[in-house]
Amino acid sequence: MAAGLLLLVAFTVAAAAADGGDGGGTLGASYIFGDSLVDAGNNNFLPTLSKANIKPNGIDFKPSGGNPTGRYTNGRTIGDIIGEELGQRHYAVPFLDPNSTGEVILHGVNYASGGGGIMNATGRIFVNRLSMDIQVDYFTITRKQIDKLLGASKAREHVMKKSIFSISIGSNDFLNNYLLPVLSIGARVSQTPDGFVDDLISHLRSQLTRLYKLDARKFILGNVGPIGCIPYQRTINQLSENECVALPNELALRYNAKLKDLVAQLNDNLPGATFVHANVYDLVLELIVNYDKYGFKTASKACCGNGGQYAGIIPCGPTSTLCEDRDKHVFWDPYHPSEAANVLIAKQLLQGDPKYVSPMNLKQLRDLNL
Predict the structure, then answer these.
(1) Alpha carbon 196 to chain centroid, angstroms
(2) Is 107 a catalytic residue?
(3) Is 158 a catalytic residue?
(4) pTM of structure
């Protein structure tokens, strides 16, 4: 549902060690934290209003035969695509899935949750969701399990050198917290936008430091995308096709500026760690503004949804209007990108245009010897 939304990317990444001893290197793991952009099914196991395990979600997801898995898109997430490109043999298993035990966790675990945010209050409109604090709590459980599987020394090497930690969170903190009048009017009266952004950065710094203390060393952090341009925002504000809502985008840019500073500070202050910054805002805005250049026919209308000019009010479900040309829509539903858009986003992050991913691209981060 309205969780997480397109516009904060996080990336599933598999780390391949460059020892080449078995001819193909040692595949590492992806540990994924975030919201609905990368939720691979955790919310299936929660009593929550934010769910994607209903048709036609997943209609193009080949591993499930086109059945819904809890992914908030028609096919693969950006994380799925990047993981495949980097040689990951298995998708990271959702932490709440009963099958997330034993050696499968050595390939990675997905903690992301539709509706989740940096702040614990974010997304409470959905009743249940996993906040970033809870997601990190869950990783502490996984970390102990890795020790039991590998022994302390090999476990530490696995986590530090062969694993990538991807964090894509923050969109809901605006869309389903600060900007949601029913729940946030008190916060907005007592907090300026800059004060709220400072709170987000402070909490995120603490959460990332917790992961570092649990031996995480390779990080990729996506900023918040142009959340004022999603079909939901364009529909409820009755905008023309080339207009976006100013306030959400302005808040995203305030947060993004401070996130970039945070990445630099963490690289300076946490010895041995590498934090990669993904400029999702500019990357997604490029797709939205120049959609025809990339083979899309619309960047304003949802492929699956109902309500208003851009099918942007009612989330994707069995009674939704469904487009036939899914690969021609930037947006799958009122909030999330289509698989076709995810492929283009992933390609940029893998190839490493410095204006989108810095100080290195994802392949370089995977191969980085610490």
Answers:
(1) 21
(2) no
(3) no
(4) 0.91
